[in-house]
Design a protein that fits this description.
single chain, 2 helices, mainly beta, two-stranded antiparallel ribbon, 147 residues
Length: 147
């Protein structure tokens, strides 16, 4: 909240393709928030197990979307001594232009929808739903973690 003191935050009443508008004087930033719990049990071709699952309509991301940034919020289970004891919030904050560039490597999902499946391992994050080789830098989202 300290960083927002000189800014104003607005929430649209209707769904207009963004969730937050942040204004500072004449500058503004549009933000779209996507949230997901963390799914376990699925092993990807990379050998990783677990992922979040966020979906974005292709038309919103490619052309008509107004968002300047996408914030992907994942509720990651924290395993205590005997069971899940709480959930950690993990944020990926990705500029829309960068997300558009990376969407070109997406596996086909539902027609007209991009699915982003993020696997978290310490401070490393990668999108597992890709068509390129496992080590492609476009699948690595670590730089956007808590950005």
């Amino acid at each position: 909240m300290k960083n927002l003191r000189r800014m104003q935050v607005y929430f649209p009443i209707y769904d207009v393709g963004i969730d937050l508008l942040i204004v500072k004087r004449s500058k503004h930033v549009w933000i779209q928030v996507k949230q997901s719990r963390y799914y376990t049990g699925h092993v990807w071709k990379s050998g990783h197990e677990g992922h979040s699952w966020h979906q974005i309509k292709k038309k919103l991301l490619e052309k008509s979307g107004r968002a300047d940034f996408y914030v992907f919020l994942t509720y990651l289970p924290s395993i205590g001594r005997h069971r899940i004891s709480r959930f950690e919030n993990r944020f990926l904050i990705v500029p829309t232009e960068e997300l558009r560039r990376r969407a070109k490597i997406k596996d086909a999902g539902k027609p007209g929808v991009y699915s982003f499946c993020f696997h978290f391992e310490d401070k490393r994050v990668r999108d597992e739903r890709i068509t390129v080789e496992i080590n492609d830098e476009r699948a690595d989202y670590s730089q956007f973690l808590e950005a």
